Amino acid sequence: MRLTAKGRYAVTAMLDLAVHDDQGPISLADISERQGISLSYLEQLFAKLRRKELVKSVRGPGGGYQLSRSAKDIHIAEIVDSVDENVDATKCNGRANCQQGETCLTHELWSDLSDQIHNFLSSINLAGLIEKRNVQEIAARQEAKRADVLRLPSQELHA
């Protein structure tokens, strides 16, 4: 069982939006720069997030993305589910055909673990993550780093 990059990146991008919610619409380029996620990958993820109504897009100058509802009303499990991520500990992807088409001896154990993981992710919302001190410190560090890069004269960027 493993949460793939798709689920991790979707959660990271949504948390970035939530952290910067007071700044209005956020461009995917800004998220890409801060989080080190490819812009084309973010575009694919945000198409799914928009379809599941977790984000809304704002067109035009100063456009970008915003959370579609309050950070306290968006749970991590919703984000993971919205990008078709399956956090499943069973070998059979929950189909109970683990052992030559039959249920294996430990199927229920791994199925219960999958349920526990989903319940855990359902109990955490974006607002709760923002409140964590380390999340705030990391976001501040990312902003400071971005500001430093923007202040560098162009010849220093190419040196």
Which descriptors would you attach to this protein?
Arc Repressor Mutant, subunit A, mainly alpha, 8 helices, 55% helix, 159 residues, single chain
Describe the structure.
There is one protein chain. The protein is mainly alpha-helical. It has one domain (5-153): Orthogonal Bundle (Arc Repressor Mutant, subunit A). It is 55% helix and 5% strand. The chain has helices at 5-19, 28-35, 39-51, 76-82, 107-122, 126-130, 133-151, 154-157, and strands at 55-58, 64-67. It has a two-stranded antiparallel ribbon. A hairpin with a 5-residue loop joins strand 1 (55-58) and strand 2. The longest helix has 19 residues, at 133-151. It starts with a helix and ends with a helix.
Question: How many DSSP E strands?
Answer: 2
> What would you call the shape?
elongated
The CATH superfamily title: Winged helix-like DNA-binding domain superfamily/Winged helix DNA-binding domain
Helix content: 40-55%
Please compute the radius of gyration using only Cα atoms.
19 Å
Rounded to the nearest angstrom, the distance between the terminal CA atoms is: 44 Å
In total, how many domains does the architecture comprise?
1
Report the mean per-residue pLDDT as an integer: 89
Most strands sheet: 2 strands, antiparallel
- Placed side by side, the strands forming the largest sheet appear as 1-2
Beta-strand share of residues: 5-15%
Query: What is the second-level CATH architecture?
Result: Orthogonal Bundle
CATH topology: Arc Repressor Mutant, subunit A
Number of helical segments with 4 or more residues: 8
